[in-house]
Amino acid sequence: MTKGFLWFTVLALALVGCTGGGGGSTTTSSPAAQPADAGFKVALLTPGPVSDAGWSAMAYRGLQAIEKELGAEVNNQQATDAQIRDAMRSYAQKGYRLVIGHGFEYNGPGVEVAKDFPNTVFVSSSGAGSSANAGAIRFGLEEGFYLAGMAAALTSKTGRLAMIGGPDVPSIRSTFKAFKAGAEAAKPGIQVSDSFTGKNDDIAAARQATLAALGQGADVVIHQANAAAQGVFDAAKEKGALAFGANLDQNDNPSGVVLASAVIVAEPAFVALARSVKDGSYKGGVQLMAMKDGAIDFVWNPALASRVPPGVAARIDQAKADIKAGKLAVPMDQF
Does residue 20 surpass a pLDDT of 70? Predict the structure, then answer.
């Protein structure tokens, strides 16, 4: 499903170790950053606020790393729907060399706008479209969700799990399929339901969807709800259920119900991408970044270690090692 392109090597060397309301922009400033390079500007478009402690916040960390390590002038803006193309064009007209759209929904607009601005590179987080100066980073978050599914199934006492999404888009569907596959592999016959609110920032809707799922017997839940994730966690706390975090490490959520998190580590990939644009080596395409590259992780919450049944952590660790070694293939949709 991926197309190789020349900055694969740059990414590999660097990796050592989805739509809300809109408006507003923020320029970052870091005292530890290199002096700003006036000739290299990078913008980030997100579907929700970068304070969401999840999907958008994860990308913002990547932008901050670009500023710090490459001395870039950076800017971020929340942009959705009709705002996306206008925001992309505006940044390109202002001389931004790289515009990152954080989500599947930015891929098509990026490829389209790229035709008019050959000196700007447009890259989305997820998506399959590409051109000479446009493409995508495909984070294999499905691997983290697969492990979360295994852990959820082995932890559940009712034999029912729930998945709560915001917009019903291919990238979220794919992670949910992986979660269900992991759950069924760990405990055949486990029941897994899904529900979509249609929004990334509606906490009340996410809470109600979660309460409905828990009312049908689910006792462990995972989300792809961005800023609305707090509604999922609040409902889980209210009903004495457990939850899994997504995209960013959400184990320290005040609700105290997050057993573990399926995490994207965006910083190395974003920096490597920006470096390839800056030095002129970027070639359009789609690059898969997975657990073996250090871009995906599954992180237990040590504060809730007592809630994990004996032997479960060891089983998940083995599955994680098998994924990294290529012995365990996790389902990923092509989109």
Answer: no
